[in-house]
Amino acid sequence: MPSSDQQDRPESLLTVVIAFGANLLVAIAKSIAALISGSASMVAEAAHSWADTGNEIFLLVAERRGSRKRDTAHPLGYGRETYIWSMFAAFGLFTAGAIVSIYHGISELGETGPAEDVLLNYIVLALSFCLEGTSFLQAYRQAHGAATKRKVPVLRHVLQSSNPTLRAVFAEDAAALIGLVVAFLGVFLHQITGLAVFDAIGSIAIGVLLGVVAIILIDRNRRFLLGESTSPELENAVLVELLGRSQIERVTYLHLEFVGPSRVYLVAAVDLTGNETEEHVAVRLRDVEKSLEDSPYIEEAVLTLSYPGDASLEPTSDEVPEVVRDGTASDVAAGGAGTLRTD
């Protein structure tokens, strides 16, 4: 079974590196255009791109620190650190991008006079659209491949995925493309009407857009840090996996909690086949736990014996998604902490 970490993390790293390079070039170009033209929309776009560039550094740190193996000090690994650094990136987008853009736009509302050096603005906006589009296509390609395997829309996968770096790059690049269109409209309307208010409104609109995206990213990382229900398809797939083992007769309790991208903490109450002594049962339970932990998407498995009167959990379907069979659990991982019970 291929390793989820081996498959998913290099692609996520590539996505972040491409986004960093594109944002850095775009930020420099927009800053030059903003200084020369004085356009409020271009200032907002420059702030946006510098915020995105800084955020990619946070995401690179997130990828590096979150991929460390678990040790005695952190028995469930370092995966949750990915969400912490991704949240730092979202806060950066909100402060350096949204607040600066809105503040500058408001301060420019009273400005008058014709637009200057609009040709330079248009050239920079077009170049930026190409570079941001390249970065977005990489993020979209990664998300689309996973969403296709899960048979869900791309946007739903991005919002639900346990991979925060993919979500951050996808959202930031999508916002960047929309922001470029808004900036173009602001500059164009300023040019043809001679009213600088359109340029200022463009800056404010870009700031509001960045604020909305940042709040969504902050909330998603918060949910994964606190714990959120896993997707029914993943819970069902794990239940099918447990019941498919010859050592397990039934399952009465199943708890799954994400401890990082593509990594889950599994707790289950099971009945083992046969009728052995307590010592032998303990050994068999530990053998099953170790076998489960060989999976690339299970950080730790803890099994206990079921109470005799507890109701058995039944799968909603015997079908195991392709991504679970292949071990690329990050593709099907669509939630945080969750418990499957028969209440």
What keyword list fits this structure?
343 residues, alpha+beta, four-stranded mixed sheet, elongated, disordered N terminus, disordered C terminus
Estimate the strand proportion. 5-15%
The biggest beta sheet is recorded as: 4 strands, mixed
Helix content: 55-70%
Series of secondary-structure elements, N-terminal to C-terminal: HHHHHHHHEEHEHHE
Extended strand count: 4
Question: How much is the radius of gyration in Å?
Answer: 24 Å
Mean pLDDT across all residues, rounded? Answer: 82
Please mark out the parts with pLDDT under 50 across 5 or more consecutive residues, or reply none.
Answer: 1-7, 321-343
User: What oligomeric state do these chains adopt?
Assistant: single chain
Shape estimate: elongated
Number of helices: 11
* Strands in their spatial order, largest beta sheet: 3-2-1-4
SS content category? alpha+beta
N- to C-terminal distance: 35 Å
What does this entry show, briefly?
By secondary structure, the chain is an alpha+beta fold. Helix content is about 65%, strand content about 10%.
What does this molecule look like?
This protein has 343 residues and is an alpha+beta fold. It contains eleven helices and four strands. The protein has helices spanning 4-37, 40-66, 81-107, 118-150, 154-160, 164-193, 197-226, 232-243, 278-293, 322-326, 329-332; strands at 248-260, 263-272, 298-305, 338-340. Strands 3-2-1-4 form a four-stranded mixed β-sheet. Strand 2 (263-272), helix 9 (278-293) and strand 3 (298-305) form a beta-alpha-beta unit. Helix 1 runs antiparallel to helix 2 (40-66) and helix 1 packs antiparallel against helix 4. The protein is elongated. Residues 1-7 and 321-343 have low confidence and may be disordered.
